[in-house]
Specification:
- The chain is α/β, with parallel strands linked by helices.
- It is built from 15 helices and 18 strands.
- The strands form 3 sheets. Strands 2-1-3-4-9-8-7-5-6 form a 9-stranded mixed beta sheet, sandwiched between helices.
Length: about 525
């Protein structure tokens, strides 16, 4: 692509959000780790501008990541974000020090130079999102302040003669209300990138990439859960290699009600894709017996998935191509960034069964065509692939299934109980016409029992928590503001219709500080 922005990753949890925002603007970009960006890479990528991401490190420490000199020697426009802003200043002769007051969360940005191109079409005062302890205390020569916040006197800076810019806040997150305007100003007005990228481009690029990776012969298997992610991945790969794809659907006993029947009907009957249905309930539930640690549960499930896939893979194919060599997974970017560093030194939040939960050694090589996408981008891709809109709009469902919605030990009895609660909850949301307003809604069966009074008799049964959030990309989320009477109705209906639960709670925790799932 001739119209490229190069994003240099220093380990921020939200680096991929920068790419996502640029893709929303129809601008192509590539992310590369800071320690891989040199003159050769810059020449090969041939970007029109460079963005330095945020990161978890402190420039007051000698071992913290630095930018390659080739970045500054390129003569290209540069935008530094948070850590990248501080790094830009320090590399050019400024000073970075530990701040007396940290800034985390929402802050107010006041523009002091409205003539700067970076701030075109932005209001003089707007909400931004901060996440820093260090700050710039002295600007390099040639820079001027173009915006401030309460605790950041150099919240945005510019050296327009060299087309160098820095912002202490994160314009890429949704909480920075006009951040996408700032990114558009840099990529389009300053770097001169044309708006030519879209999901159809991604589809064609990824099909070509899959064909190259999978080669011209041999079988590829896809771990199919029936959710949006794995379904889109399966259809995309099927369009790339046709009948060489075989989907393996593992029923691990941790699915939603009716999930197995829906998956088989859709893929085997509607799409006519090769499908193997593995009933592994006993195997998974046995392995989870007595396990309570969420990381251990995720890793057990991840390993068992791979065991099943590898067992099935040995018997797939014909003649000299017997045995599959590749495994397709519907891994998304939020899964990756929470599980393990992708480009830079980001922090691990939790293992996802298909990322941090995978065994170190596998006989299958991974094909993960959605690895750099967010959920809403996957939905957009699914529509271009022709998947039914009703399927695309389904709420996310984790690969480990109900195992991470049952804190503590997982049993078949608890799964059955949670399925009943979850079905009532989602049906009532749909009846109220709220399903499409909510990013994700589900129930959690708590590892505690509560005393209640039912029919004038004492009860001692499980408590359950309901969760519903709104989000754009799953990286941040707010609680959905149900009306109190709707929650009261839900509580009454669930307790009346599900024997074994007598107390219903509503989770009012945003992300951060919580994650969307409980485990």
């Amino acid at each position: 692509m001739a119209e490229t922005i190069l994003i240099v990753d220093f380990g921020s949890q939200v680096t991929q959000l920068i790419a996502r925002r640029l893709r929303e603007l129809k601008i192509y970009c590539e992310i590369h780790p800071f320690n891989k960006v040199n003159q050769t890479l810059i020449s090969n990528v041939a970007p029109k501008g460079i963005i330095l991401s945020g990161g978890p490190d402190s420039l007051t420490q000698a071992a913290s990541p630095r930018a390659d000199e080739a970045i500054f020697a390129s003569g290209l426009p540069i935008l530094g974000i948070c850590y990248g802003h501080q790094l830009l200043c320090q590399a050019l002769g400024g000073v970075v020090e530990s701040g007396l007051e940290r800034e985390f969360g929402r802050a107010a940005l006041t523009i002091s130079d409205a003539n700067c191109t970076l701030l075109d079409n932005m209001p003089s005062n707007s909400q931004i999102w901060m996440s820093h302890g260090d700050r710039v205390s002295k600007l390099p020569d040639g820079f001027v302040t173009i915006a401030i916040s309460e605790n950041a006197p150099y919240a945005a800076i510019a050296d327009e003669s060299r087309r160098y810019y820095g912002v202490q806040f994160h314009p890429e997150v949704a909480h920075s209300l006009h951040g996408i305007t700032l990114l558009e100003n840099f990529a389009h007005k300053i770097a001169g990138c044309k708006k030519i990228w879209d999901m159809a481009n991604f589809r064609e690029q990824m099909i070509a990439k899959i064909q190259k990776q999978a080669g011209e012969a041999g079988t590829v298997i896809c771990g199919l859960s029936g959710g949006v992610d794995s379904s889109v991945a399966a259809i995309l790969v099927h369009q790339a290699i046709g009948d060489r794809l075989t989907c393996i659907f593992v029923d691990h006993g941790l699915l939603r009600a009716g999930e197995a029947e829906q998956v088989v009907a859709l893929f085997k009957e509607h799409y006519a894709i090769n499908l193997i249905h593995c009933d592994e309930k006993t195997r998974f539930m046995g392995a989870l017996q007595g396990k309570t640690d969420p990381e251990e549960k995720r890793k057990i499930i991840g390993k068992l998935f791979i065991d099943v896939f590898q067992e099935q893979a040995t018997n797939i194919g014909e003649s000299e191509f017997l045995g599959a060599r590749f495994l397709v997974q519907g891994t998304l970017y939020p899964d990756v960034i929470e599980s393990a560093p992708v480009y830079g030194p980001s922090q691990v939040i939790k293992s996802h069964h298909n990322v941090g939960g995978l065994p170190e050694k596998m006989n299958l090589k991974l094909i993960e065509p959605l690895r750099d996408l967010f959920k809403d981008e996957v939905r957009a891709l699914g529509l271009t692939l022709g998947l039914p809109e009703a399927m695309i709009a389904r709420h996310p469902f984790p690969g480990p299934g109900l195992a991470i919605r049952i804190p503590g030990e997982v049993t078949a009895e608890k799964c059955d109980l949670l399925r009943k609660i979850d079905t009532i909850y989602l049906n009532e949301i749909k009846k109220a016409g709220l399903y499409d307003e909510i990013w994700q809604a589900f129930a959690v069966l708590l590892p505690v029992r509560a005393v209640g009074v039912m029919g004038d008799a004492r009860s001692y049964e499980y408590a359950a928590s309901l969760r519903a959030v709104t989000s754009q990309d799953g990286m941040t989320a707010d609680i959905y503001p149900f009306k109190p009477e709707f929650l009261a109705h839900l509580g009454t209906k669930i307790v009346n219709e599900v024997k074994g639960v007598n107390r219903i709670l509503y989770d009012i925790t945003s992300k951060p500080p919580g994650t969307i799932e409980w485990e």
